Amino acid sequence: MGARLLDRRLASAVALAALASGNAWPQRVVLVSFDGLGHEILTTDPVAKELKFFHHLRERGATFDGVQPHFPSTTANSHAAIWTGAYGNVNGITFNSHPLLPRSAHAYTEREVGFRSTQLKAEPVWVTAARQGKTAVAHQATQMYPFTAINTQMGAVATNGYQTRTIAPYQVIRRATTWKSGPFEFTAAETPAGMRVCVEKSCVDVPREPTETVDPLMRPLARHFSLPLPLPGDLPLAVHFRLFPDKLLQTQIQELALHDGTHRNDEIVREMLAASGAFVPNGATRLLDSKDLTPAQYLETVEFQIRQSVGHAAWLNQRFRPSLMQSYLPFPDETDHRWLGLDRAGDATARELRVWVYRALERAAQSFGAMAGKDDTLMFVSDHGMTPYRRILNAGAVLRGAGLNKQAAYLYYSILVNTKDWKSGSVDPREPVLRRVREALSAIRDPDSGEPVVTAFFTPAEHGQRYGIGGAASGDLYFDVLPGYSVSDLTNNDAIVEGTSKGTHGFLPSRKDMLAICIASGTAFRPGTTLPAIRSIQIAPMISEILGIGAPLNATGKSPLP
Q1: 3-state SS of the chain: helix, strand, coil percent to 5?
Q2: pLDDT of residue 22
Q3: Looking at residues 233-247, what average pLDDT do you find?
Q4: 543 vs 553: CA distance, rounded Å
Q5: What is the pLDDT of residue 26?
Q6: Buried b / exposed e across 384-404, counting CB within 10 Å, b at 16+?
Q7: Rounded distance, CA 150 to CA 351, Å?
Q8: Which has the closest alpha carbon to 138: 80, 92, 179, 97?
Q9: N or C: the chain end with fewer CB closer than 10 Å?
Q10: CB of 467 within 8 A of CB of 457?
Q11: The pLDDT value given to residue 18
């Protein structure tokens, strides 16, 4: 009896010590990344006022005063920093498309897709959680596929459709009654309400409806798309249709892969598709560019992507009820790339289109919020900011003009030198080439102000610790440019060209317009507070602390919680 009382007193003492230290967790964490939603846009852009749930979350929780992403401030490497708690000099993911390693076996111009897990060298937080006894679901995270020992773990469910195979793209069918899409042959017949589309013995009815005009806040998202049509074959696949008055839209057919912690499990995917429908990675931008879809019709595909992603996340959350639930949306990045610059230039149509997207995102935020219980931590993050531009610096043309195009290559706001450690490399030492690169880029002047377009240079040796640059997959020299500029690797144009006003990112990550977001509510956060800015490598250690576990094995960032 006395021993039991002692055990209870000891347990109480441990609990009180945890409360006194501010570590009164663990609890569930619902973590959602919104691609391209920068801190500056969230807090100052008039369109972002549509994100009422985000601002509600700020009121009942805490807002970090910006998050410094990776350098360059691009999607794949900045997300890898969020998941692993380390920048690319440790986790191996340095760019959206990084140099292929090992150097001795590859030319300096060969590239590997940074969204894939092939070069990931650090443990992501969902593996961290599962390794320490917490259940986890990772839904559409970067560096999740192919499934490997470093990104999977018993107790963690990993779902990805971004790096898997595209079986068939979005397609518009105007008058055909039979057509082929990938390996599938479809037939369609008119019905009193629209069309019936079939593949082999399976059919789905598609109602004919006009292009959507009702505010996304006032009705279900993508409400006129058909139910899923299951597709025959070994893979779990489905497709949806949208019948406009003048055309039939078929959604992209995309492989969706799920690892249940022990093996790839297509049966769970079949259950999810039957319950929630198919997955598409993005909106139908190709059909917008080709004018096969109007902007308003394209917006319906944006809604469809959001609806399907949120639906899958909700299904996974309900099915597995994990301690850590992670999800991702590719917006507003996809649409702000297209319309942010035009909006800032005064284009009223671009403003209306952005408002529509942000209202659809508001619906998504509400749904994600519903996945977190009252005692859970809800955290919204992003990978980088976004800024408008109207001019392009063609770094490839600058290198060619200086006679350096065989010795150095442009790579996402950095320069990679063809040193002898690369296959067939010829440069040794690299410093004379880098000096000529600096001189060539520094000589380019803005045609209006006369200022140098390149504003600063950065090296792994001098700035590696601050920005996480360095390692075998790193550039040799990084640089930033004037606001209003983007950078390309084109070699067959002038050094500076005028471009259409758009949105972009990738610049020095400490710039205000490149800072990402982190807002959260839960026991660890006092309502209505603003906390100092952090780095993206601090997010995974912070999540680990809230879960009551150790940080990811390779993390270099520290939790910012007091």
Answers
A1: 35, 25, 40
A2: 40
A3: 97
A4: 14
A5: 57
A6: bbbbbbbbbbbbbbbbbbbeb
A7: 43
A8: 80
A9: N
A10: no
A11: 35
